[in-house]
Amino acid sequence: MSVQKPEELSKIDYKPPKTSWMDTPTVIKKGMFCWGAKEKSLKATGMPNVRAWSVADEDWKLPENWKEIFLEGLKERLSKYRSFQLFLDICVRCGACADKCHFFIGGGDPKNMPVLRAELLRSIYRKYFTTPGKILGKIAGGRELDVSVLKELWYYTYQCTECRRCSLFCPYGIDTAEVTILVRELINLLGLNIEWIAGPVANCWRTGNHMGLLPHTLKDTVDSFQEELKNLTGINVNCSFNRKGAEILFVNPSGEYFDPNGNITFMGYMVLFHELGLDVTLSTYTSEGGNFGFFTSNEMAKRLHSKIYAEAKRLKVKWILGGECGHMWRVWHQYHNTWFGPVDFLEEPVSPITGTKFENAKSNKIVHICEFTSDLIKHGKIKLDPGRNDNYIVTFHDSCNVSRGMGMLEEPRYIIKNVCNNFYEMPANTIRENTFCCGSGSGLNASENMEMRLRGALPRANALKYVREKFGVNTLANICQIDRAALQSLADYWVPGVAIRGVHELVGNALVMKGEKDRTTDLRGDPLPGKEAQ
Amino acid sequence: MSFGLSFWISLLAVAGLVLVAYVGVEAAHLGYLFGVIIPYAAFAIFVLGIIYRVLFWAARPVPFRIPTTAGQQKSLPWIKQNKIDNPSSALGVAVRMAFEVLLFRSLFRNTRSELQSGPRLAYASSKWLWIAALAFHYSFLIILLRHLRLFTEPVLPLVKSLETLDAFFQVGAPLLYLTDIVLIGAVTYLFLRRVLIPMMRYISLPADYFPLFLILGIGISGVLMRYFFKVDVIGIKELTMGLISFNPVIPEGIGVLFYIHLFLVSTLFAYFPFSKLTHMTGVFLSPTRNIANNNRAEQHVNPWNYPVKVHTYEEYEEEFKEFMKDAGIPVEKE
Lengths: 534, 334
Hints:
The structure holds two protein chains of two kinds.
Chain A: H1 6-9, H2 39-44, H3 66-80, H4 82-89, H5 102-107, H6 114-129, H7 131-136, H8 147-157, H9 165-169, H10 176-189, H11 195-207, H12 215-233, E1 248-251, H13 255-258, H14 260-276, E2 280-281, H15 298-315, E3 319-322, H16 327-334, H17 336-340, E4 366-368, H18 369-378, E5 394-397, H19 400-404, H20 410-419, H21 450-471, E6 475-478, H22 481-494, E7 499-502, H23 503-510
Parallel strand pairs in A: 1-2, 1-3, 3-4, 5-6, 6-7
Helix pairs in contact in A: 3-10, 4-10, 6-10, 8-10, 14-23, 18-20, 20-23, 21-22
Chain B: H1 3-27, H2 31-58, H3 90-103, H4 105-108, E1 111-116, E2 120-125, H5 128-146, H6 157-166, H7 178-196, H8 198-203, H9 206-228, H10 233-244, H11 256-271, H12 279-282, H13 313-326
Antiparallel strand pairs in B: 1-2
Helix pairs in contact in B: 1-9, 1-11, 2-11, 5-7, 7-9, 9-11
């Protein structure tokens, strides 16, 4: 799909249309939406309204009583989520959130202002569920739900990456992600998911991972990594699948088996675990930490992730270690313990290397790899040569979910500072809790919506450009597989010359292993600083 | 609904309220209705309405622990936690909420983004909304407290101190209250930004203009009464003391301006529980702010958590057993 040049795309008109938003019909623009869910993907997980349909068609083949289904679903969710009810009731439209959304900043579409995105649903809520709205209609800010309104909701709910940046600035903590999550649930009652989400969900349901990798493929992939690592380091790195009695179950996003950037991050974990002699196993059954079910419905999210604890129980491990992923950690951190707790068949996590008790994870028994590794470094348990990363001038991109849905800000930075000599922060308004989304989160990292992704990535890319020009930054480190897969093409477009790297790739590069051969390359096979001639 | 329509409907609604009070008291002599019955009713609606609202929200469960974390989490002992913006304890949550409710902490974060040529995005700190919001809410609160003078005899010492403080500059006769100016100034600012900033105008509804006009009307009628068209203060106090002691009386000759003011205030009270103004109580219940971020350390229980359909390991192995065996991956059933 052809996309305008950066100079063209960044000419953004923030002027709202002359007609009021309720009277401005939404045009579904190519490049700004993802293809609709395929019949087989909906069928695989038993989703409603299984049929072939296309977003481009006038007729979306909705069920006869679609309006009733939608409104009943809305009513049910209002009674089940205080957040939802409250967020629909108390917005004062102060506008503080308006220019905090990356899609609005990069696109200028007023319906991408978080406040207005939520008003799209609020107006329906008022019309059907509040007395003033029922009586006064438009004057009370209500509007009828019809097919064009439903399509508008669909269009904009898949232009929200649930990054929660708006919720940080809202004086009442109104979280658009919460609204988007539940609108997506309603939309899914009508079979209107997008294929980029429904496909991975179907895969994950059957094969244990989004990519649809079968057990032997996973094994082959990891074998090839082992071979690669043998060549690079001279060491036979151990790795096991579905091994009973291991101390730790390691679960990571399956994109790491598939995406070239993710591959190297995974190799970073492998060398680290090997060097530590960690008693850890992978599982083919639970070969996915990410959760596109979370972008479908909370029920689907729970359906996909129940396997993680089930597998931990079956393999009789003591605790679970999780890899680098963004939304996976929002789900693991804020939802898992509620869905699956009490997790009394596992033990409170203790690092077998340092003896550190991970008190903050004592109940759900899941530790983030960055918590684990920073603890190792703090205790001096691994030998690191940061000079091996000297070709990298690094900045760090906080993933939305990990920063605003968890607050893990220092751990990855501590690791990077110990494995790299050149580290520079992007401007303060764009990092830590203020971080900008990559523009492709929440299951929107497809290719048919490239214009939307590029627009959404503008704020992140722009901050990156700033440090590139000021400090010569050429590497963006991150702890999210969607970032690694999606940001590379977005960076190439806005800030050519920046490589996207997982933090544990940098760890793997710097890790000095016992008995390794004279290293000339990093984990990518690129020459180490000073070894270029060889 | 267009900006023009939203604006005029709201303005006319408030103007209509003024007219209703004027005609009702001046022409129809319904002093008792406007001075006693409506204020009682409005106050009752306010109290019951707010209680209903809060109970309505509180009756809805908080299925998941979803705080917006705005700082470093509690993790390893040597990493400094941001205990306020990312609280892990009840105390931390209390402090976070106090900052939010009393100082509008989140609004304080506000920035303004600007796209410059290049393209270059710049973010400037933008505190005007925060300042205006603080100015508005606190001047409103002080004015409300000052009005306790009308409902206490002898007047509470707190009220007297507030009055002295509020008239700090000792100008004018009667003494000019700072909060009168601040309130009207802040409401005017909030109104102007709503109509002058294109995006604000675009998102605004009648429900945004109406309360602004209403509060402005209350402020202006109050100011007119105090500084310009003197009303019978003794008579007003007689009326208000009558209200508070449930012995309502309508003294003669208070002046219609008072009734207009009182009717607008009554409208605000009655309107409050059914409008966006309920953010006053709603903010306390906001799940992204009022719960601790200790989800992995303590289980949060969802009262409607239910079992879901899962794809079991047995089903998985059943389908892929041969592949697994060929690849040397252990299986349960050989």
